[in-house]
Amino acid sequence: MGHTGATSFGRDGKVPIPAFAISNPDADQIGRLQALGGPIRIRLESSAFYTQGAESQNVLAEIRGRYKPGEVVLIGAHLDSWDQGTGAADNGAGVAIIVAAAKLIANLPVRPKRTIRVVLFGAEEIDQPSATEDVLGGAAYLSAHAGDVGLHVAVNECDHGADRVYALSLPARATGSGFAEMCRRVLDPIGILLTEETPPDIGLDVEPIVRAGAPHFTLRGDRTKMFDAHHTPDDTFDKIDPIQLHQNVAAYAAVVWMIADSDVDFRKPFLKPKP
To answer: Are the CB atoms for 111 and 66 separated by under 8 Å?
Structure first.
């Protein structure tokens, strides 16, 4: 499905060939012209460039846990967007969802047992196709918290647009547990199924810390329409459905609260919190 993105060339000595991607609306237009018959000629111009030495930052905020402040439930989203659009779905929606969910939790009369850390990552869009550079948001977070990976009880990245959440995947150690059943009962009224599938879609920003050993959970959003506008000028606020956006916020607030206020340990046995 065509949309603008990143191109990576190997280092095998071959001459790189420039690549272009077009949006779905443009592809549909070409299809219509082709159906009319006759040759189609397309003129392509690229203004793509990469700025060396540009600076980006992660933004962090916390709701400190009342009993176990050293144990962290991390929810993240990336601040930057593709330059072709306003970034409403990718990833203004993700930022709005996790900030709104955290605010709902912060406004409760009692804080959860564990700390909730909201991380708005910088430079996600240039992480593609891999998040290996230390200067990028996810890798920079891991570098800053390399000694604290074992304190991360669960991590999540919200980067699926703003359409409804339809499934929750918990870390493997929670499968079939009483905690999983509690999640099922809470989420069923808002149309979210509990799946025993290993959480997919780690997300570029949390991928480094997940690979380092932190368990992750996934609230799986409906991406059926997301890539119609993804990385194009069509990624604008009018595409966001407020009802589905509110369902996302409700799902995140509920799941993050339950994880943060529980005593369930999703970590592998070798990941022990510091005393």
So the answer is: yes
**What CATH number should be reported for the domain holding residue 158?**
3.40.630.10
Within a domain: residue 18?
Answer: no
Q: Which of 134, 123, 173 is nearest to 153 (CA)?
A: 173
Neighbouring C-beta atoms of residue 226, cutoff 10 Å? 20
Specify if 70 maps to a domain: yes
Alpha carbon separation from 53 to 19, 86, 204 (Å, rounded)? 24, 24, 21
Sheet holding 193-195, edge to edge: 193-195, 165-169, 218-221
HSE, side-chain direction, 13 A CA sphere, residue 60: 15
Handedness of CA 138, 61, 88, 200 (dihedral sign): positive
Query: Would the CA dihedral through 157, 148, 125, 93 be positive or negative?
Result: positive
SS3 203: coil
**Percentage above 70 pLDDT, the chain:** 87
pLDDT in tens, 114-169: 999 999 999 888 755 554 555 589 999 999 999 999 999 999 999 999 999 999 99
Cβ neighbours of residue 71 under 8 Å, at least 6 residues apart? 65, 113, 114, 115, 151, 153, 273
Number of domain units in the chain? 1
pLDDT digits (tens, 9 = 90+) for 28-62: 889 999 999 878 888 888 777 766 677 889 999 99
Residue 198 covered by a domain? yes
Residue with tokens 């397309």: 42
Token digits of residue 48: 């793509």
